[in-house]
Amino acid sequence: VTTDVSFRYGSGYALHYELPEGELLEQAEVQDGTLLFCTESEPDSSLPHHGQLVITLPEDTELGEIRVYTSFGSLTFDGQANSLVYDTSSGDAEIGGVLAGSAEVYTSFGSLTFDGRANSLVYDTSSGDAEIGGVLAGSAEVYTSFGSLTFDGQANSLVYDTSSGDAEIGGVLAGSAEVYTSFGSLTFDGQANSLVYDTSSGDAEIGGV
Prior knowledge:
mainly beta
């Protein structure tokens, strides 16, 4: 799938999609209460742009598990669901709303903006920045080769592991904040029970509590 995916709210259920030339629709149906949407690119096709997939839901709809797999495309979610998995080669994710379970984002190239509520958050990328606010009952975990972290939310614990990237940590952590980087600075001005900063090269400015 080479498509940007977004969720909206309206008076009823609706599915709207626009596919670029060279992208073929394989499946768009509901089976046992689950929406299945799948496309495939024509062999040797060069897609000029991303397609669009817009899922409209009635207000206050609570979804179960959401799984989005794309080659290239962004995700925008601001609703209610049990859990969310977004796996893409290249694409940004903007996640708000309420998730009773976990939010998981896996991407080779793409940023994450999180400002919702969830039990836990995992963001694993080769290259991308993370901006995390909102409220997490459990942990926030960020793994990246190249990318910065800005945290200003609430969580039980925070782990940031990168080869190269700066961390700015505010907010409130009931447990620990752990930062592991080969090249990158740390600015801490939040609240935490404990703080670990492990780097080969980088400066630290520590305030907060």
